[in-house]
Amino acid sequence: MEYTTRLDSGNRLVIAIDCDEVIVETVGPILRHYNKQYGADLPAPLEPKHYYNGTPYDWGVANDPQEGARRVEAYTQSDEFAALVPEETAVAAIRRLAAQHSIHIVTGRREDQLATITQQMVDTYLPGCIDGIHYTSYFNEQQRQDKSVICERIGANVLIDDHAKHLNTILAMNDECPAPAMRRIVHTILFGDYPWQLCPDERDSRIISCPTWSAVERTIAQIAQGEGITELDSTH
To answer: Which residues contact 7 (CB under 8 A, 6 or more apart)?
Structure first.
């Protein structure tokens, strides 16, 4: 896998970064809270593999599938959730990247519920580093936006996300552009090593896998220099 991009202005990139599981861990705290609070309802303790793929039975809400979502939503609006601290490696890497590039957060969080605590996290840990926070409200069908639309609007060159499906949508957007000469190549970086991520042979081969922030930084440096990117380069 190899491709290059042309930058609009020098070597400065517009980088879109997901929030949850990329900047700050939230699935673990949510599941630990859920297991503690509602364990009596569960057939077995919830694990990360259940977060996106679990059945209502797994979540102990077989009689009311929406109850699981309400329970999680209540926790995400709690003081405990608001106090979650971003990963140190993420903060350090983003601070370094922000010195050279324009950084935007593009998150599936609901703006009407989580904008305040997300802004507080940025103000506390990443002051002056983030040029915009954009919410797709992924879990609200009435408000949901696609990350590819936001990336196009902000002129992103790179999207870093822990879900391959969002990256696939970006690649499809590039492929569908009717005028190849006008395409903005958005590099797609799959961050982390999570049980909900597709196996390499089940996702678009153009997606660059970066399990750590050090791998992300090396990949971004290659992209900024217009170098070809290989899977080997991005995973070490």
So the answer is: 13, 157, 224, 226
Look at strands 102-107 and 187-191 and give their pairing.
unpaired
Mean pLDDT of 94-102: 98
Q: How far apart are alpha carbons 162 and 17 in whole angstroms?
A: 10
CB 200 within 8 A of CB 232: no
C-alpha 78/C-alpha 106 separation (Å) is: 22
Please say if the pLDDT value at position 201 is more than 80: no
The dihedrals phi and psi of 204, each to the nearest 5 degrees, come to -55, 130
List C-alpha distances in Å: 55 to 63, 66, 67.
12, 11, 12
Let me know: does 43 contact 56? Beta carbons within 8 Å. Answer: no
DSSP summary character for residue 84: P
Helices (H) and strands (E) in the chain, counts: 10, 6
CB 100 within 8 A of CB 14: no
Longest alpha-carbon distance in the chain? 58
> CA dihedral defined by 89, 92, 93, 94, rounded to 10 degrees?
120
What confidence tens digit (pLDDT) does each residue in 183-198 have?
Answer: 566 899 999 999 999 7
Give the whole-angstrom CA distance, residue 51 versus residue 107.
17
| DSSP element (H, E) containing 188 | strand 187-191
Rg of the chain, C-alpha, whole Å? 18
Q: Is the pTM of this model over 0.90?
A: no
